[in-house]
Each structure stands twice: as structure tokens, then as C-alpha cells.
Amino acid sequence: MRTGLAAGFTVRSAMIGSVICCISARAEDEAPVELDSNSIWVEASAGQPVITSQAMLTFAVRTTTDSSNLKSPSSVSLRQLWNTQLGLGSPTNVIVGRLKGCACLCVQGHDAKQGLGGTVEALNDSGRLLWRSTSGTGRGIGAYLQWIDPGDDTDPLVASSFVICDTQQPGGARFLRASDGKLIREIHNVTHFGNNNSIVADLDGDDRSEFVYADQTTLTCFTLPDFQKRWQFDEGVRFCWSLPALADTNGNGRPEIIFGSEYNAGHSNSSMLAIDSTGKQVGRSDGHAEDLGSTPVFVADIDGDGENELLKVGLDLEHRQKQQWNHLYVFDMDGELKSRIEPGFTGIAVGDMDGDGHLEGVGLTNTRDGGHNGHREIRCIDLATGTVQWTTPVERAYLDTNSPIMADINGDGKLEAVVGTVE
Fold this sequence. Notes:
Largest sheet: 4 strands, antiparallel
Oligomer: single chain
Number of helices: 1
Helix content: under 10%
Strand order of the largest sheet: 1-2-3-4
Structural class: mainly beta
Number of strands: 30
């Protein structure tokens, strides 16, 4: 399947809001199954989507498409493969990993059986429950669920973040063995909340993966699989839901960690920062008026010149600056600001939709953090020129879903955009 860039890790970035209500999962002899606004679609192996709706999990495969009506979500039909009752309330995250060549689906939510707090349930590719693990009474679900493959033939892990309920005590993350759900390690934040996703990569070229964990004020690097603390960076870090990115910015063959911060240097002063594999700061750009700590960093060649840029959507957070438009910041790999584009949206999918060599950005206008512009629409913008390519009106927009995606939905070799809306 041809795909565009999506925010964060693939399975998290594929979340869709109420647009899923328009898509039916059906067998040939069954009536359509309507899905509510809490439904989630993620791409699993072999192009098979997973849909969760409240406490139900449906595994379905796309059967037919109508390429003549790409704007209609109902042009995609799904055939249900199985449906499983979960022991969870309000499932928030779904991830897909591989265990001995087979798919393993993990779902995170509140324990709906005994009130034991944030819970993870793992299922095989037939919908059978493999294991469930609860974080304990008084602990709620955190912001992310992540599949970690440490390498070296070590069993994969599932990282599940948690918060301490009814208090501001630091939360943390639990690391569960993916094969049986056994708790292997628990780490704690500096802050109450953790963050959206962390990084698993070989940062120093020693053929071993490191784990860089983000809470709201620190980035901490651990070795894998023993979770020995290697370094912690806390200079100018102020995250909300920011997702760090990896990119070799200086050509030394080793990736730097790049992230933005939210008003870390004052009311109207946010920063973009880069640190190396040892936790040393190697780049910083200050003085940006918008919140740069609540969106992902994208690394992409937007104009087809063979050189990557760093993309970061800024937020006029709750109209703090009273701007007409928020901005997408385009930096070169040295951290110099090249341009600012007025998107009006804060969640973005990136890809070349028209085949002209320029990348487009697509998103739904955010009337809270996207500026006082009065637009309620899905917008497509050429990221190289800032030109609006097209718009599609919607009835209502407030906080966008922050998770549009691009993919070749109908198999015609071209990218389509899938954007969640609000009711």
C-alpha cells in the first residue's frame, strides 16, 4: 500500500474520529454495522484494518472501492472477519506487533470488569484473548501504548503509560512482555503525565537499540533490554503531546533527536531543539510565538530538491496570540527557518497527492488553536509554495482530530486523504 507521512507511529497516526461512522464493516449477507465516534482504524498486516468501538474490537478487510467517488467515506466497504468483546471501557490506543510471525493486537483502556485501573488486553489475529494486564487501583490510562522490539532475539515489549488518579504525583510507564503480559519493568516520570510516543532506535551505532522516553519536561535515554539510565535532557523541554523525530542533521551518520517546546522561554517564546545521541544539545531555534510542543516533527523533502526539511505545526494555543492563522514552520536541516505557511489546521497528513514533486499537507481547520479565520473546512496546501490547492467545507470544526492520514485507499496508485471530523 502506498502511504503518505503520518503523525507519530503508524498505528497511532491512523486514528479516525466520527468519519468511521460512515463506513460499514459487513459480510456479504449481513446488514451494515454502524460504528460510533469513538471508533479507531489502524492498518494491520496485509492491509487489514482494525476497528474498535467502545468495548468491541472488529477485525475487517477492505473488499470493494468506488474510485469515482473518492470524497465519500461510504465508497470503502469492509467485510468483517471477527468481532470480540473487550473487557475494557473507553479504549484509547491500539497497536499491532509481530509475535513468532503472527500479528498481536494490544488495546489500552479502563478495566471494565473489576475497576482495576488502566488495562492492556492482547489478542491474536483471530480475536482470541492472549493476556490482560492491569496497572492497579488508583491508576488511570496514560497517553500512549507502544510496541518495542529490543533486538538481539529478546522478546518484544509493550509499553503502556499510566497516571496516578486524583493526585499530581508522577505517572510512568509499565513494560510488559508481549508474549504473556508479564511486568518486566516500571519507570516513573518527572511529571504527572507522560507523552505521546517515545523513540526506539540504535542511536550510537553499536547495533543495540536505545529507548528515549519523553515526559512533559524531560527526555531520558535507557539502554535495552536492561533499562539502564544513560542520560537525561531537561534544558528547555516543555512538551504537551509533542512527538520527537530522528534525523541525521549534520551528515555524521548518526541521528539527532529533534523536538519542539511549548512556551518554554516565556509567554510568546517557543523553541525547536536538537540533541545528539549522548543527550548533548547541538541546535536550538528560539523566539517562535506559537506553541511548538504539541505537534509532531516531520522530516521530508517538500519541494523535490533532494534535501530534507523539518516541518513543525505551531498552535495559537486557545487564541493566546489572537492570530488570524496559525503557522506551519519549515526549517532546513541546520535549524534555520525557511518559511511559514498558514494552514488553519493543527493535525496534518503529508504526501504528494498530485504527483508534481511537491508535498501537500491536508488537515481539518481547528477553530480553537488554528487562528481566528472563520474557516470550517478540510484544506489541502502545497507545502513548498504555501498555496491552497483545494478545500472541502464541513459543518463544524473545533478541536480537530490531529490524525489525518494519506494512503492509496482504492489501489489506483494515487494518494487519498482520510480526515476525521467532529459532530
